[in-house]
Design goal:
Layout: H1 6-30, E1 55-58, E2 63-65, H2 68-71, H3 81-92, E3 96-101, E4 104-107
Antiparallel strand pairs: 1-2, 1-3, 3-4
Length: 108
């Protein structure tokens, strides 16, 4: 055997470059310092964001905290929960008047 042919060398170089890109981008994004999951990052290794707390005020004045694990199988920080959970709480909690969370509030 006289050594590698040039097309084998080119294919090896392209494969190595592909693997470097596939490993470098997620690794850099994993340690980027942002607590949210990153686009092009490894979801299973991304830093989890704390789940927000939603408090529903009912017509009697009582405040009920929503258990996100009862609504979602696995709350994740990259989901737009502020757009989804408050309207769902207004529709499903009997006598709901207002939903309050860290980012705002919604009148039912």
């Amino acid at each position: 055997m006289q050594g590698w042919r040039w097309n084998v060398k080119v294919a090896s170089a392209i494969t190595a470059l592909f693997l470097v890109v596939q490993l470098t981008i997620p690794t850099v994004l994993l340690f980027a310092g942002d607590d949210r999951s990153q686009r092009f990052g490894w979801q299973m290794f991304s830093k989890p964001a704390p789940a927000p707390t939603y408090v529903v005020t009912v017509s009697t004045g009582e405040q009920v905290t929503i258990d996100l694990f009862a609504v979602l199988a696995r709350p994740r920080g990259d989901l737009p929960l502020d757009d989804l959970i408050p309207p769902h709480a207004c529709a499903t909690v009997p006598g709901a008047v207002r939903v309050i969370w860290e980012g705002g509030s919604l009148e039912c």
